[in-house]
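ARCHIVE CARD
CATEGORY: sequence design from structure
SOURCE FIELD: tokenized fold
FIELD CONTENT:
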């Protein structure tokens, strides 16, 4: 076992401690076997693990190092330990820090003791082989991106002790089919369950007040959901791309619903109360709805029509080619409709399995069509439509190069007029 000499800060801590004052301070890093750690000074002298250099596949973290209790797993302590398949955390640990086990790609199981009260940001980020994890009743918060990209995780139970679910906490958990949320959670973070494509149902407890933007974006298997009376706001794009969603019940308590909250939910019927904010939202955004008190909806434009979300409908429209942008008019016989200008300055930013795409706005455009593929011939291409001049392309293949182009379109009297495609740009995904 080797140690580094404690610096002047440690001596100062000891002196202050002898005087009866016990602030939380740290000493220099030390090593013991395969562990790097930092000494913490409070009412007691404890240890935070800051690094691991071993090669074990099944690891049981010690409860003590050099006679000092291990109370926390520090930031990045086991980051990218690719050989680890299972980890047991001792009862002495109270916190799991930022990035603690991120990208441990072979990790299939982990035991978290009842002593842990917080799971930090990106704690298990991209642990792609993790199939099961139990969150104990002691945990009060789940950090941002805590389990993002855990694509093998099939179910999760969030205990009653948890008060908040962080942004993107379970984003990209593609195998997740079942989620139980405890009745103390007050907020569901932005993109918390985004791209949980196998999730078929979820029960939101009455404790929840706010649902962040994109919270259930691209949950393609989600069929119905009931918003509890405690919720007052629903963020924008919350259910964007939930193509199997047929029913959402919205109570009178909801007074804010963000833009494009139900974009792409072509089979959706909103269930709400007469004269509620939800009814007004449905009318203004041309969404099909039913009144829960049994009243008729004579002013609902969709009573006998299929749902088309917002003004960016995915309902088929008659398309007029860019080379024949004309429309017949009884009074003037023919009127030329100017096609949108060519999109310029398309910029790509690579993320983990994502690409952020942004371009200059085109004057007069109703929206934009984005086409992308893994080859410059655009074989096997995918296209998406957006109203804004930016989009995040998700669920892409890691380390693969993608080709992207964008064009603007304009809708006039039921016809869609397309501009020219932008210059093709390419970027390798992280």
């Amino acid at each position: 076992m080797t140690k580094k000499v404690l610096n002047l800060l440690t001596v100062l801590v000891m002196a202050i401690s002898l005087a009866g004052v016990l602030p939380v301070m740290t000493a220099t890093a030390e090593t013991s076997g395969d562990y790097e750690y930092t000494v913490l000074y409070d009412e007691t002298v404890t240890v935070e693990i800051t690094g691991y250099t071993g090669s074990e596949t099944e690891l049981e973290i010690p409860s003590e190092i050099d006679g000092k209790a291990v109370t926390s797993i520090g930031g990045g302590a086991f980051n990218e330990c690719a050989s680890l398949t299972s980890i047991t955390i001792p009862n002495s640990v109270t916190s799991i820090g930022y990035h603690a086990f991120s990208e441990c790609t072979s990790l299939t199981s982990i035991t978290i003791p009842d002593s842990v009260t917080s799971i930090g940001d990106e704690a298990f980020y991209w642990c792609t082989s993790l199939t099961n994890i139990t969150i104990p009743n002691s945990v009060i918060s789940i950090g941002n991106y805590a389990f993002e990209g855990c694509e093998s995780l099939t179910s999760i139970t969030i205990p009653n002790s948890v008060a908040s679910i962080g942004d993107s906490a379970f984003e990209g958990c593609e195998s997740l089919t079942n989620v139980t949320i405890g009745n103390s959670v007050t907020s569901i973070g932005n993109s918390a369950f985004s791209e949980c494509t196998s999730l078929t149902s979820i029960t939101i407890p009455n404790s929840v007040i706010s649902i962040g933007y994109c919270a259930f974006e691209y949950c393609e298997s989600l069929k119905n959901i009931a918003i509890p009376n405690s919720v007052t706001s629903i963020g924008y794009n919350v259910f964007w791309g939930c193509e199997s969603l047929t029913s959402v019940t919205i109570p009178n308590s909801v007074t804010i619903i963000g833009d494009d909250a139900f974009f792409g939910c072509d089979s959706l019927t909103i269930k709400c109360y007469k004269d509620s904010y939800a009814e007004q939202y449905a009318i203004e955004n041309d969404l099909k709805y039913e009144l829960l008190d049994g009243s008729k909806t004579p002013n609902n434009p969709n009573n006998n029509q299929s749902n088309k979300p917002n003004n960016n409908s995915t309902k088929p429209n008659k398309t007029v080619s860019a080379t024949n942008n004309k429309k017949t008019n009884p009074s003037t016989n023919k009127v030329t409709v100017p096609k949108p200008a060519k999109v310029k300055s398309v910029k790509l930013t690579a993320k983990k399995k994502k690409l952020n795409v942004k371009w200059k706005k085109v004057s007069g455009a109703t929206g934009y069509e984005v086409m992308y593929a893994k080859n410059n011939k655009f074989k096997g291409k995918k296209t998406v439509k957006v109203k804004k001049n930016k989009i995040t392309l998700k669920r892409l293949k890691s380390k693969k190069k993608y080709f992207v182009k964008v064009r603007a379109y304009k809708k006039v009297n039921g016809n869609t007029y397309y501009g020219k495609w932008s210059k093709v740009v390419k970027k390798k995904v992280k």
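CARD ANNOTATION: Residues 192-315 form a domain with the Leucine-rich repeat, LRR (right-handed beta-alpha superhelix) fold (CATH 3.80.10). The two ends are 39 Å apart (CA to CA).
SHELF: design records, drawer C
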